[in-house]
Amino acid sequence: MRSGDDIELVSVTKRYPGGAVAVDAVTHLFRGNSYICLLGPSGCGKSSTLRMIAGHESVTEGAIVLGGRDVAALPPAKRGTAMMFQSYALFPHLSVTDNVAFSLKMKGEPTARRRARAAEMLELVDMAAFGDRLPAQLSGGQQQRVALARALITDPQVLLLDEPLSALDPFLRIRMRAELKRIQRELGITFIHVTHGQDEALALADEVVVMNRARIEQAGPAREVFNVPRTAFVARFMGGHNVLTLPQGQFALRADAVRLEAEGAEAVVRSVEYQGTHVAVTARAAGDQDILAVIPEAQFFAAPRMPGDAVRLGWRDSDLHPLTA
Q1: Strand partners, 36
Q2: In this structure, is residue 304 part of a structural domain?
Q3: Where are the transmembrane segments (predicted)?
Q4: In this structure, how many other beta carbons lie within 10 angstroms of the beta carbon of residue 45?
Q5: Would residue 232 count as lying in a domain?
Q6: Residue 165's pLDDT is what?
Q7: Of 187, 160, 189, 142, which Cα lies nearest the Cα of 5?
Q8: Among 74, 86, 165, 296, which has the minimal tally of Cβ within 10 Å of its Cβ?
């Protein structure tokens, strides 16, 4: 059942002069009022898809349906979408308040009204005390909040975010993930967020859409995509999985389901990485397959292993997940 807040791509293709295809006949329904992450490696088509939804990239073929109408031929300001860019693109000579209110000024809104609306948006992103500052007087995280407020001031149906956390340090990135999710829930609008970070997508998304080679490889709830990858590419890209070729076929096996045991497949330890709560052990098994085992820290150091040690790897057959391709 479609709602007026859904956004649907219908056979959307982006082809550049010379024949290069960035997005290849993608059809997908993004449910309204949800947080969606487009995930994939560089060059997979995720940013081109986002820019076509925004209207910053032309559609070669296909339709983009928002609110029951095809917006593919409309300029960005007429679509009901807003975009937050990776670079933030704040005007250095304007105050924070004037940056946020800029689009309303372009629409001819009275000064008092646009400044009041800007104040509301700055309150939403916890930047109300910084309205008189210039962008150069803000940290990277504060600039990001201002860019977010500026994108939201137009009351879009869909907010599009192009790798918005990539410029932040790891601690701030985790904090801002929580803030983005809070704001999306508070506003009740659709966020479509491009990232190449699997942890970011899993932490944020109601739906993860994994792209590969200009197409959608798999889409679904974050937990489903992680636990039930359909293809070897998705299993490897999401991380935390081994892709094993066994006599009965190809399987994904979560690394935390692999155990070091007295009996099991013979292997030789290739690397050991201490990662705080656990230790990542990579071992080379028969058929020159590298298998990753994630072992709880206390358990590993009760019987530590070193590169070159012979080990036996074990897992339950029920932990093997068959891959379709």
Answers
A1: 192, 207
A2: yes
A3: none
A4: 23
A5: no
A6: 86
A7: 189
A8: 296
Q: What is the mean pLDDT of the chain?
A: 93
- The one-letter amino acid code at 198 reads Q
Two tokens, residue 23: 């997005």
Residue with token string 């999985």: 241
Do 127 and 58 share a structural domain?
yes
Q: What is the pLDDT of residues 13-33, one digit of tens each?
A: 999 998 899 999 999 999 999
Count other Cβ atoms within 10 Å, centred on residue 54: 19
Only one residue has tokens 């994994």, namely: 210
The domain total for the chain is 2
190 token code pair: 């659709």
Domain extent at residue 206? 7-227
Q: Do residue 145 and residue 209 come from a single domain?
A: yes
Q: What is the pLDDT of residues 62-100, one digit of tens each?
A: 999 998 899 999 999 899 999 988 778 899 999 999 999
CB 159 within 8 A of CB 185: no
**C-alpha dist (Å) from residue 177 to 49, 140, 149, 170, 198:** 22, 14, 15, 11, 13
Structure token pair of residue 185: 């829930």
Judge whether 14 and 62 are in contact, CB under 8 Å: no
- Are 200 and 276 part of one and the same domain? no
* Structure tokens, 125: 């992103």
Amino acid at 185: R
Instruction: With both helix axes pointing from N to C terminus, report the angle between 140-152 and 170-187 in degrees, rounded to the nearest 10.
Output: 20
- Residue 85, classed as helix, strand or coil, is coil
**Domain-ending residue, one of 227, 253, 273:** 227
- Rounded CA-CA distance 218/225 in Å is 7
